[in-house]
Amino acid sequence: MRLPKVISCTILVLLLAGLPGRTWAGPASDLVSDFQKGLIAVMKDAKTLGVKGRYERLEPLVKGTFHLSLMAGLSAGEHWQTANEDQRKRLVAAFTRMSIATLATLFNGYSGESFQVVGERDGPQQIVFVDTVLKSSGRDSDVQISYVARQFGQYWQLIDVIVDGGISELKVRISEYRQTLKSGGVEALIKLLEGKSNDLLA
Q1: How many domains does one find in the chain?
Q2: What percentage of the chain has pLDDT greater than the value 70?
Q3: For residue 14, what are the domain limits?
């Protein structure tokens, strides 16, 4: 599988910007396991924390696990190339806030759920798929969750999530943001993401 030229260029530009603050030198599956343990801990305290408390607990976990600047840049596609430095920083900040707010809204309780890492698979473009399952007593079947990991230097970061073998979360966002970017560029996307975050955290 070959990446489109504009996407490949975007990846190279973003990689030059460096890594997030927290990095993981162990196996990609260990990074995923650590992230899922953090999610379970937040779920167990969800009712006490409330959505804003969950956001605060999830923020360092998400920022240290996902390469959010890369994901934000890929979501903007070719518009990332024409954005200025201030716009890029605000886009990454808005994308990050919206991503964390989404998790804080989704993981709003605990009913005995547990995660299990099934294994790793090599993918194209030097990525690794970490396959996991989410088990819940209230569901007839497990939820299959595959995390897309990539090594940056000696460190692993996650760059995408695929649920039940479907379309990747990143591809969904790219498709969702396409019309907004077409009509108003990066500024319109920043406004959209900020609005979604505000609604989720209200």
Answers
A1: 1
A2: 87
A3: 5-201
* Torsion region of 50: left, alpha or beta (phi above 0 gives left; psi -120 to 50 gives alpha): left
Question: SS3 string of the chain?
Answer: CCCCHHHHHHHHHHHCCCCCCCCECCCHHHHHHHHHHHHHHHHHCHHHHHHHHHHHHHHHHHHHHECHHHHHHHHHCCHHHHCCHHHHHHHHHHHHHHHHHHHHHHCCCCCCCEEEEEEEEECCCCEEEEEEEEECCCCCCCEEEEEEEEEECCEEEEEEEEECCCCEHHHHHHHHHHHHHHHHHHHHHHHHHHHHHHHHHC
In which residue ranges of the chain is pLDDT below 50? 1-23
Per-residue model confidence (pLDDT) at position 8? 38
| pLDDT at site 28 | 95
The phi and psi torsions of 168 (rounded to 5 degrees) equal: -65, 150
Q: Taking a C-beta distance cutoff of 8 angstroms, is the pair 54, 38 a contact?
A: no
Q: What is the CATH number of the domain that holds 58?
A: 3.10.450.710
Confidence (pLDDT) at 9: 38
Handedness of CA 28, 75, 100, 133 (dihedral sign): negative
The pLDDT value given to residue 25: 56
| CA-closest candidate to residue 194, choices 98, 103, 99 | 98
The per-residue pLDDT for 3 is 39
Q: What is the pTM of this model?
A: 0.86
